Automatic annotation (TrEMBL):
SMART domains: PHB (SM00244). Keywords: Membrane, Transmembrane, Transmembrane helix. This is Band 7 domain-containing protein. It is found in: Membrane. SUPFAM superfamilies: Band 7/SPFH domain. InterPro entries: Band-7_stomatin-like (IPR043202), Band_7 (IPR001107), Band_7/SPFH_dom_sf (IPR036013), Band_7/stomatin-like_CS (IPR018080), Stomatin_HflK_fam (IPR001972). It comes from Albula goreensis. Its main location: membrane. Belongs to the band 7/mec-2 family. One of its GO terms (cellular component) is plasma membrane. Pfam families: Band_7.
């Protein structure tokens, strides 16, 4: 709802500016218009081919009558008529247009030089403003997108540039949309395509990431050793409380050794068995 009200306000402001520019033709102007209309009637049906014009569904026609915009709005789509001698018109494409922002060398807030490129999607929202307020709306929007990209990214740190691309895109879109509003241009979307870092900085960041991963691996290994030692301590306490459990552990070890097909088998005798023979002696 807020976007719709803003678009309506912008459309009304553009119409007010156009209304100030367009005015009455005057007596001389109306005289020439009447003469042109009579000439078209006298040369009919030959003049019909010069007066009848067609614009497509995605186009609008801005008609100039003796240098002034007629009706303060564009014509189309469909059929419309122009006078052969006093009227001229300009076709305006209303479809969404996309273009690439060339790679820009940008110095970030933390004094790092990066190369950034992007893509912009825009369309003509007011055909009359796009024709009357700017010489070439498409070319002007492209140049403005380059300067806006440098201005916005110049206020960001490298970490923000790498992690907050969506926020940067929204900031650029609002800045471009506000600047191109008098031209009748609506910027729909701005996207950051690629961020190229210097090779030295890439190696430094890779080394930092590798060191961070190694430190994390050492911490995980230390935690595993600590957990294993706790488990061994608990197991030793359980075995100490039950001598039969120790004997079963011996038998399991013997079974494991026998499965490996060794020629020599060392079988440890429990200390309680040896103590029995020593007592008899």
């Amino acid at each position: 709802m807020e976007m719709e009200t803003q678009d309506k306000r912008r459309g009304q402001s553009n119409e007010d500016l156009i209304g100030e520019r367009t005015g009455e033709l005057g007596c001389c102007g109306w005289f020439l218009v009447i003469i042109s209309g009579l000439f078209a009637l006298l040369t009919c049906p030959i003049s019909i081919f010069m007066c009848l014009k067609i614009v497509q569904e995605y186009e609008r026609a801005v008609i100039f009558r003796l240098g002034r915009i007629t009706d303060k709005k564009a014509k189309g789509p469909g059929i419309f008529f122009v006078l052969p001698c006093t009227d001229t018109f300009v076709k305006v494409d209303m479809r969404t247009v996309s273009f690439d922002i060339p790679p820009q060398e940008i110095l970030t807030k933390d004094s790092v030089t990066v190369s950034v490129d992007g893509v912009v999607y825009f369309r003509v929202s007011c055909p009359v403003s796009a024709v009357a307020n700017v010489t070439n709306a498409d070319f002007s929007t492209r140049l403005l997108a380059q300067t806006t990209l440098r201005n916005v990214l110049g206020t960001k740190n490298l970490a923000e540039l790498l992690s907050d691309r969506e926020g940067i895109s929204h900031s650029m879109q609002s800045s471009l949309d506000e600047a191109t509003d008098p031209w009748g241009i609506k910027v729909e979307r701005v996207e950051i395509k690629d961020v190229k870092l210097p090779h030295q900085l890439q190696r430094a960041m890779a080394a930092e990431a590798e060191a961070t991963r190694e430190a994390r691996a050492k911490v995980i290994a230390a935690e595993g050793e600590m957990n294993a030692s706790r488990a061994l301590k608990e197991a030793s306490l359980v075995i100490a409380e039950s001598p039969s459990a120790l004997q079963l552990r011996y038998l399991q070890t013997l079974n494991t050794i026998a499965a490996e097909k060794n020629s020599t088998i060392i079988f440890p005798l429990p200390m309680d068995v040896m103590s029995h023979f020593m007592n008899r002696k």
